[in-house]
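Problem 12. The chain below contains 584 residues. Write out its predicted structure in token notation.
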Amino acid sequence: MRMNPTDNSDKKTGRTWLSPRLAMVISVLLVAALAATIAEWKWQLISRHFFATSQESPIVLEKLSLDLEHPDALIESEVLADLPKDLLTVPLLHDTLTEDFVFYYQANADRLGLAGSLRRIVYEHKLTVQDSLIADLLSQPAQLALWRSADGKLTYSLLRIKTGLLAQASLSMVNVMQSIAEAAGEDRQLTKSADMMLNGEKIQFYSLRYLRGKNLLFAYHNGYLIALSNPAMAIDSENGEAELSDSALTLIGHLFNGDNLFTDHFGLTQSSVKHRVSLHADHLMMGYQAFFPMLAGLRFEMDNTGWHSFLAVNNGTTNKNLNVDALWRAMPADAGMCVALPLETDNIENIIRKVASDKSELDDIDSVLTGAAALCWYGSSRMHTPLIALELAANVQQPETDNELAGLFTDIIGSYEKKVEGGRFPVDSRDLASGKLWQRIVGSKYGLYSADQAEPPLDLASQNFFRVSFARHGSTLLFSLDDKLLQHALDTLDKNYPALSEKVPAGSTMPIYLSPGKLAPLLELESMDSLPADQEAIFRNAAEKNLLPKIRALQAYPDYLLLLPQGFHADSDWKWQPLEWKPL
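Solution.
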């Protein structure tokens, strides 16, 4: 699982192990944090994520605000149906998933429902379409682009399948589409939708409803089948008629002509690998990429030697930007996962100018911070409450900076409480032996504490709350929504607990640290929390029986350092660098 580090090269030189999160159903939670997951692209992307629910009619659609030319994730595959099976070639995933994983995603309810709808249409209209149509299509070269919805999940998708090889299997897509056209005018589930003109030819789109109001929009032209998970991605129905939007016309026209628009968006070149999965950093960073613009994306690909990992960085990034030795000394050693990120101070300054009551507070942030950040997740906390560490520049003076930090914390942190004087709870400030600690109670339904745990009792608007904490310990700044986790870091800096720096070689360019065993409790907690016993009893029982043993099996695996090449320098955006997975 080594890759010879060569500056700016995509050349594969050996097998690379992938993150154990790739195969866990709940690894979607990690995708938002680290971007190492392929769980959202198993069959779930071809099923639940691909065939998104739409309760709207084909004409009256809720307008979606998607940038169709810039998806959040992209899967390219020579045989899309083989992706679940090929994931099992990774030793870690093979041990934790078993063959049941492949069977589940081949027998998924959405896929079976879609196949059932097609089978009924073929039977009732006496069409000459084979039962194996879906399986045949998914055995072809394909691109699957995904966009996130308002909740951050990869909900919307566009699938382009190159159907040229189907003719060799005696399956002509021209004949298939002719049969579909015959049935579309008479069927309750299959109807004609919008159309478009391309190169002098009319292309008809069809809408297929299946299962509980789910809707698939698709069309065929020039050897390509294009399907969209939600008609509202492409159709503008404001005038009462189904018409493709201008952006959809442009994008789909290029795709039918064989153009690779999506690969350009991810800085990719043509490749002969079997599978390639690319994630945009804006999705990985949960919308906060503006603070870390040097990180562009993450990629996994499989060739004839196995799976490999790559990290894309933007112009100006060097290995020095990702060297955060001082910050690893602040992180407790029992972390499940950590990432080091170059910090964009200009965007932080813009926010400070907008929200700070004193516009001079840390106005020149570039001279205050060293330009890097570290984030860590712990099994004792939650996915949405990581520990964040920053490093102050050597020339920063105290106590002036403490006063400015206190002002920023007071201005930025807090939720409105109508029963509290001033609208927010006061900030609790305490002196530390080597710095300062600021805390504020913030009501939130996602809070770590229930309202009745507040001491003294508080009249909260929410049923739960955070005790948001911010501290300066020497030259290190710490922040977390979990006050206990931040205290754990303070104890580590006081040398009362081992630090992660004891595991990380000094001077290494390590953007990611992963401890499967210590991450397992967090995965278990998040997966069970997403399946309340009173609402998801069946799925919860299934998860307890089948998923939890797989998660707990992660504890048998060693910790990993993900290392970038030494001495790299990105002279333009989207420079892909190989990641070496080094077991400890």
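Discussion. The radius of gyration is 26 Å. Students who got a different answer should revisit the alignment rule from Section 12.3.
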